[in-house]
Amino acid sequence: MMGLEDLKIHRDMMVKKIMQLRAEADASLKQKSNRNGWHSDLRILELPEFQHLKKKLIEISKVVLKDYGIDPGNRVVSFAAWANVHDKGGYNVSHVHPGSWISGSFYLNVPEGSGRIYFEDPRQATRVEHIPLSKMEDKKNNPLYSRGKFNVLPKEMMLVMFPGWFEHGVEHSEAENRISIAFNITPIQMTEDQLQKLSKLANNNPIELLS
């Protein structure tokens, strides 16, 4: 988790564009794990309003991949990203992102009462292990001390990144217009020549060469 405060000057522009896209879209076409809300297509970072965010996410992702044990040098990846808008009562069912090395969520609008993102330990044994937690309240949502599940209360301009296999969801929101941008970094096996040809396809998922 980290804050991207240097992007705050672009926040209003990004929020305005997302709300415009939602108003113009057929809401019935875009529902994935989210409920009572809206999900854009997977090319949100290709729009001019999001280029500063895209540049920052690629920069951070290369550091995270290296820390994760993956050399990002000259890796071809799919960098799909989409906007999520939750209305009052909106939430995301628990899910994973198959095939994604790293996934993440960047929070643009988090009014009071917004649902927390939660993570569930994939080890089945933790579902039946009932070890009492410390009485210290600040440990209850700390992954180092939690058993099975922990929550993160998002803040505006916060970035949360995690492995794609890490099961997660979003609690019911009591607020309108909880807005985030989610993304997946998924490896693709191809040459640079193949990358150039694929990049010319208008409706293909965004492809990036991490160099």
Q: How would you describe this protein?
A:
The chain is of the alpha+beta class. It has one domain (2-116, 153-210): Jelly Rolls (Sandwich). Helices cover 18% and strands 33% of the residues. The protein is built from 3 helices and 10 strands. Strands 1, 2, 3, 4, 5, 6, 7, 8, 9 and 10 form a 10-stranded antiparallel sheet that branches. The longest helix is centred in the N-terminal third of the chain and has 17 residues, at 51-67. The two termini are 24 Å apart. The mean pLDDT is 83.
The shape, in one word, is globular
Oligomer type = single chain
Rg result: 18 Å
The CATH homologous superfamily: q2cbj1_9rhob like domain
Biggest beta sheet summary: 10 strands, antiparallel
Count every helix, treating DSSP H or I runs of 4 or more residues as helices: 3
What is the share of helical residues? 10-25%
Mean pLDDT over the residues: 83
pLDDT < 50 stretches = none
Number of strands: 10
CATH overall fold name:
Jelly Rolls
- Number of folding domains? 1
Based on the structure given, which CATH architecture is correct?
Sandwich
Beta-strand content estimate: 25-35%
Distance between the termini: 24 Å
Find the structural class using helix and strand composition: alpha+beta
Instruction: State the CATH class.
Output: Mainly Beta
Written as H for each helix and E for each strand, in order along the chain, the element string is EHEHEEEEEEEHE
Structure keywords:
211 residues; Jelly Rolls; ten-stranded antiparallel β-sheet
